[in-house]
Design brief:
Layout: H1 2-6, H2 15-30, H3 36-40, H4 72-87
């Protein structure tokens, strides 16, 4: 649809063609058919470790009952991880629309 909308446009409308090119390049980069090696390098069954709990422990250490100092950038990153985890619900993808 974007390709059709971009046909013959100039000026600001000409940016649609750039978006189409960017979208196709991004899709090609993550397409498992074009680069199956990407899928081969992913560990689909990682063994969780203590540090995987950090986003959910606040200032507490995952290595023992003690508090740790966390830099602000760690706190912000951990907040993003918690929001993502809270938005996931078991079976969400299996539900019919």
């Amino acid at each position: 649809a974007l390709e059709q909308a971009a046909e013959g446009r100039t000026g600001a409308g000409g940016y649609l063609a750039s978006w189409v090119a960017w979208g196709r390049a991004a899709a090609d980069r993550i397409d498992p058919i074009r680069s199956p090696r990407v899928l081969a390098d992913i560990d689909y069954n990682p063994e969780p470790g203590p540090d995987d709990l950090r986003p959910f422990l606040g200032d507490w250490s995952p290595h023992g009952p003690r508090k740790e100092h966390r830099p602000d950038h760690d706190r912000q990153a951990h907040a993003g991880i918690r929001r993502q985890a809270e938005s996931w619900h078991h079976g969400l993808l299996d539900r019919g629309a």
